[in-house]
Amino acid sequence: MRAWAVVAAKQPLQEIELPTPEPTGKQVLLEVTHAGVCHSDIHIWEGEWDLGSRGKMRLTDRGVKLPLAMGHEVVGRVVKWGPEAEGKGLAVGQTRIVFPWVGCGVCARCRAEEDNMCVQGKALGVFQNGGYATHILVPEPRHLVDPGDLDPALAATYACSGITVFSAINKVMPMDPDAPIVLIGAGGLGLQSIAVLKAMGHRNIVSVDVSAEKREAALDAGAAKVVDGGGEGVTARIIEACGGPVDAIIDLVNGSQTARVAFDALNKGGRLVQVGLFGGEFAVPLPVMAMRALTVQGSYVGNPKELRALVKLAQGGRLPAIPVTREPLRNADSALQRLIAGKVTGRIVLTAEGV
Hints:
Helix content is 27%, strand content 24%. By secondary structure, the protein is an alpha/beta fold.
């Protein structure tokens, strides 16, 4: 198979030949048709994460091996499967969304379909080759979801940005549909969050971003209000836009600065859900946490049950589409560089030849 792979940290992706995997056991081999380019791919390409005072976490120290075909937002066509996948409803040529956040497959979390919480995570596109390739090997049929009537390019984004925001939003629900929910960041995750909230019937969505272009995109997507996230006074602007301190904030950037801004805007009993992986750290005043009964909660992607629920929500056009720009798979490196430069609104989705 061909792959557009990371061969060294921070170096251009290279087109290389790799052996096409032969599925065994429960494994399913798919031909990749669509692969989203996600902000997390930037960190994988860079080879490290910023952990603030704890320094850098290098992915090679966590078991990531190069060369690696990234890409964890994948739709493909079923090609073949191992003997233990017989009788699981598979057919050659089926189009399926790939759930990428796989674990060991045998622990209690994996058996409960909470694969993303497995401590031995083996995510596709991170620890195993992903969608920046002509083929992808999926551990078992339950990691495949029928997109139904969805545009496959849009459906690919649901495997990461979709279930990531769906899972995060569910951590602050239920809420009055007219109570403000603040979203920090109006990139791919931010626009996907607006779409999911609107599909859930929520009306008071406040989007925060440093980019005027992205704030305009948030309004176009259905945000009730937008807030300039640049410079001083961001917390005060959020509180003013919401008519007071906020009960629910989802930080899709989650850097040191945005975390502080969000924390300071919380109402008594408020909840901050941290999603993004921008990097850094922030200190919280511990008496304030108790006296104001605040909750700061991390949210890591989502699980197969959430992907199936999200796809069901999206059927029939009930989930507004985010902007999607299609690029040939061979343009993986230039697409990634555009994302690094902050020149992407919505999502770039790479497509196979002839798609």
